Amino acid sequence: MLILIISILAFVIIMFIMNLIDKNKERLIEKFKIEKKEIMKCPHCFREYEDLKLKECKYCDFYLEKHTKYNLSKELKKKIIYTILGIVAVILIGTSLYFGITNYIKEQQRLEKYNNDLSICYEVIKNDSDFEKFTSIIAEHTEETEFSSEAYKKLYQAIDERIENIKNGNDDEKLVSMIKSIKDKNSSNQTISNKYLKVNGYSNINKANKYIQEQKYIEAYNLFGTVITDNKNTNKEIVDLATNKQNEIKEQTLQQVIAQGKEKINNKEYSSAKTLLEKYKDLGNQTIVDMYNNATNEVNRIEAEKKAQEELERRKQQEEEIKRQQAELDAKKDKVIVETNGKTIMKVCMSSNTFRLSGTFKGQGHFSVELLDSNQDLYKLMVNEIGDYVVNKSVSVTKGAYYYLQIECTRGSWDLNWSGTYGD
Question: What is the model's pLDDT at position 28?
Fold first, then answer.
């Protein structure tokens, strides 16, 4: 766009000069003693002829036109060339200066924004705990690859300064929360992970010191233990500080543990007492060891009694289940419900989908066997004979359903067997 503007400006200047020359042509001719000469010129091939009487071009046969030709002296030509070169030089120098100054201003503005944004990166972490704004500033400098690393140096600087404030006993939960959030989003950043352990460690030491002021020695001792575990491979200074603090309150902690342990044991809260005492039984206090062993024995005794009771209940349930199953089976066995005057009716429950009847009848009288359904309506007539008879028949039935087997005879006796029921 800028080049276009300069080109237009140069064209306007040249046209202005040409117009000025044209308006003052006669004066310039007289001043610089320019010779004028009439010639004939071909409008087609532009050849020139000094013979003014000639009418047509000797090469292309076009009619010639009369023109005035100006002959410039060598000295004048040099002046014109030098003037043109001077104008071009001025334009080039001016353009170069413009671009140079413009680029210099842009670079200064870039550097100013670069340094200002780095300062803002420091401020938003130091004062506002605003990591989102921090990352948004970095996003504005994606083409400046070194900006991100410089910004993170500012972030680490601001964090370290705030950690020093925590080391002096001041709370800074916003910093703990912010670094945890950064760590969760940048799990591969080991520097942030280490700084989180550090800031969380000093913060927990401050909390433990407050527990000591409130005479909550157990809570303080446990929190010091957490700090030691978290930082044992990374921050020796924190580990040493927490260890020394633990040693300072060790006796008070053990006394509180003993008091709480006794209370739980007296209340027969043996499992809770065991859990409490187990953490401290290796710290060299025999009273705690004895209480722990006592609580453990009681827990084991209670567990044993509980298991014995559960086993007793399990066996009792098994026996009841066996009785229930036997009762169900007994209820399904064949039962005689009528037996009088040669007529016998039995209630049967089918254990299969096929009922098979076999046997004999001996005598001169009538012999019949009917299978009735659960409503005692005829389901199947299996035998209906007079005199001696041998029976061997099968019939399809519904497994699990109840039927009635009705046997009638006069002047004779029968001997029958059947299968497909739960029997007697």
Answer: 58
Amino acid 50 reads E
> 40-73 pLDDT, tens per residue?
888 888 888 877 778 888 788 788 888 777 766 6
Q: Which residues of the chain have pLDDT under 50?
A: none
Is the Cβ–Cβ distance between 358 and 392 less than 8 Å? yes
Side-chain half-sphere CA neighbours of 25 within 13 A: 9
pLDDT value of position 416: 94
CATH code for the structural domain at 332-419: 2.60.120.380
Name the one residue in this structure whose structure tokens are 């680029």: 103
**Per-residue model confidence (pLDDT) at position 20:** 59
Structural domain spans, the chain: 2-101, 117-237, 253-300, 332-419
Coil vs helix vs strand at 281 = coil
pLDDT for 197 equals 93
Return the ∠ at Cα 182 (arms to 177 and 188), rounded to 5°.
140
Q: What mean pLDDT, rounded, does the chain reach?
A: 89
> And the tokens for 368?
């019949």
Give the pLDDT score at 15. 67
The whole-angstrom separation of Cα 349 and Cα 105 is 107
Q: What's the pLDDT at 2?
A: 52
The 3-state secondary structure of 21-43, one letter per residue: HHHCHHHHHHHCCCEEEEEEECC
Show the tokens assigned to 285: 């206090």
**Cα dihedral 338, 341, 343, 349 in deg (nearest 10):** 20
Report the phi/psi class of residue 202: left, alpha or beta, with left for phi > 0 and alpha for psi in -120 to 50.
alpha
Would you state the pLDDT for residue 354? 96
Taking alpha carbons only, the member of 262, 251, 340, 333 closest to residue 295 is 262
- The four Cα atoms 292, 293, 295, 299 give a dihedral, to 10 degrees, of 130
Spatial distance between the Cα atoms of 153 and 15, rounded to a whole number of angstroms: 59
pLDDT at residue 68 in the model? 76
- Residue 199 corresponds to which tokens in the numbers above? 């800031």
> What pLDDT, in 10s, does the model give residues 355-366?
999 999 999 999
| DSSP per-residue string spanning 106-133 | HHHHHHHHHHHHHHHHHHHHHTS--HHH
Strands 65-71 and 412-419: what pairing?
unpaired
**Residue 148 and residue 114 in contact, taking contact as beta carbons nearer than 8 Å:** no
- Beta carbons of 366 and 416 less than 8 angstroms apart: no
Residues 6+ apart with CB under 8 A from 112: none
